[in-house]
Amino acid sequence: MTADNMVERRVRLLQSASEDDIGRLVDLMIDAFPDDDPTKIGLLGGKLELKEEYFTAMVRAALLEGDVWVVEVDNQWVSVGLWFKWPSILFTTDAQRDLGYNEFFKKLSPEVQHWWTVEYEEQVDVWLKRKTISNEEWGRMWYCSLLATRSAHQGNGHATALVNRVLSEVHNQANGMIGLGTGSELNVAKYEAMGFRERGHITMHTPVNSFLCAWLTKDI
Fold first, then answer.
1. Alpha-carbon distance 142 to 13, whole Å?
2. For 158, which of 55, 71, 170, 219 could close a Cys bridge (C-beta 3.0–4.6 Å)?
3. Contacts of 112 (CB under 8 A, 6+ apart)
4. pLDDT score, position 203
């Protein structure tokens, strides 16, 4: 039972998803991240009209080469997590990018396209070279590319329940680890309260804004 109207909460892995299911997940994500979210603005290059297309590409990529976990309350999906096993993380393979990302990318300005393909990787590489997370750790990590909860259901422990369920699954793998990133100091504190440890952060600069990018991990 949960504090969310004292109804039963169910966490489950989606083995498949219909077009309607994908639409439900995308609607959840749009609701979870407001249009003034700096990370969302930066990734979309300020073109908020592309948010549905971008989130759809994320879901399709995770269904293909990752895991999609949902939290269900009263027959409604209230939280979703998109997880990938390193190194096949989000949009790193042609097969994933062919499921919507390439079309999304074409609609970005040349400056934002350059940021996605060059500047983003350069900025992340500066942090990666600090080796605050070792290659060995990356090799055994399940990485969460998105964790979202509907605005009306936030603060009820749904995301925590989802992460704990993934932890229990990864626990069955020898020496497992999970990781995630966030663009919010508030979320850093929330994840630390869940047992995560911040491993580093940078200020990500885009053609339209700047935002925090922090990485956290949790050993099994």
1. 15
2. 71
3. 45, 46, 206, 207, 208
4. 95
- Encode pLDDT of 22-44 as tens digits: 999 999 999 999 999 999 999 99
- HEC states along 88-154? CCCCCCHHHHHHHHHHHHHCCCHHHHHHHHHHHHHHHHHHHCCCCCCHHHHHCEEEEEEEEECHHHC
Mapped onto helix, strand or coil, the DSSP state of residue 69 is: strand
CA triplet 166, 159, 1: central angle to 5 degrees?
95
- E runs forming strands in the chain: 9-13, 67-73, 76-85, 141-149, 177-182, 197-205, 210-219
What is the chain's Cα-based Rg?
Answer: 17
pLDDT digit string (tens) for 9-23? Answer: 999 999 999 999 999
Using the structure block, give the residue that is written with the tokens 């936030």. 154
| Residue position matching structure tokens 């964790």 | 147
Q: What is the pLDDT of residue 185?
A: 93
Question: pTM for the whole thing?
Answer: 0.93
Phi, psi of 205 (to 5 degrees): -100, 130
Query: What is the distance, to the nearest Å, from the Cα of residue 26 to the centroid of all Cα atoms in its chain?
Result: 13
CATH topology of domain 9-219: Aminopeptidase (3.40.630)
- Extents of the domains making up the chain: 9-219
Residue 144 has pLDDT above 90, yes or no: yes
